[in-house]
Amino acid sequence: MAELGRIILTEQQIQSRVRDLGNEITRDYKNTPFVAIGILKGAFLFLGDLAKQIDTEMCFDFMATSSYGRGTTTSGEVRIIKDLDDSIEGRHVLVVEDIIDTGLTLNYLLEVLRKRGPASLKVCCLLDKPSRRQVPVQIDYVGFEIPDVFVVGYGLDCAEVYRNLPYIASLKT
Ligand code: PRP
């Protein structure tokens, strides 16, 4: 198992930013019931904490995607492992992701979801790595912009390990 490097974001920094994002989303969706779509597996902790900070009507659905391959870089191909349980036609949708790296996963997902006719489609991600972008994607709520470092913890993994850390850390190189 790869060894942890340094802490990039502490638990306190994450929780404080998640509270701010929750408040912002609450304000924006005050009279607009919406469905939050958590993208598994990475977003599970973030969505759980974020949801507790949202004080307006919402429900949940989940999709699981995976880029092919098990390395630390994406191969660019995306597959849907688990699709939504319910239709999103005519509904307000907020996609919740842990990290946007090349943008390929989100770009593909948004294309798929847009075809299903949602009333609106927005994106909230915890981490954004803009320096890695290969396709432009619009992100409506961003937790933190981070440099091009491979990070684990708070949902993010290295070969499926470290998702349970309450903070985000780099790996030893
Ligand atoms: C990660 C992350 C995003 C995607 C971002 O998912 O959760 O979905 O990669 O990378 P991109 O912007 O370069 O497309 P991953 O496929 O590793 O699955 P996981 O969430 O189950 O770890």
Distance between the termini: 12 Å
Identify the CATH architecture.
3-Layer(aba) Sandwich
Structure ligands = 1-O-pyrophosphono-5-O-phosphono-alpha-D-ribofuranose
DSSP strand (E) fraction? 25-35%
Residue-averaged pLDDT, rounded?
Answer: 94
- What is the chain-wise order of helices and strands? EHEHEEEHEEEE
Please write the CATH class name. Answer: Alpha Beta
What level of helicity do the residues show? 10-25%
Q: What do we call the CATH topology?
A: Rossmann fold
Q: Tell me the radius of gyration.
A: 15 Å
Could you write a compact summary of the structure shown?
The protein has 173 residues and is an alpha/beta fold. It has helices at 11-28, 44-52, 104-114, and strands at residues 4-9, 34-40, 58-67, 78-82, 92-100, 120-128, 141-145, 151-152, 168-171. It has one domain (4-171): Rossmann fold.
Description:
With 173 residues, the chain is an alpha/beta fold. It has a single domain, classed as 3-Layer(aba) Sandwich (Rossmann fold), CATH 3.40.50.2020. It is 22% helix and 33% strand. The strands form two sheets. The chain has a six-stranded mixed β-sheet with strand order 4-3-2-5-6-7, with helices on both faces. Strands 1-9-8 form a three-stranded antiparallel β-sheet, covered by helices on one side. The longest helix has 18 residues. The protein is globular. 29% of the residues are buried. 1-O-pyrophosphono-5-O-phosphono-alpha-D-ribofuranose binds next to strand 2, strand 3, strand 5 and helix 3. The site of 1-O-pyrophosphono-5-O-phosphono-alpha-D-ribofuranose (PRP) has 19 residues, from strand 2, strand 3, strand 5 and helix 3.
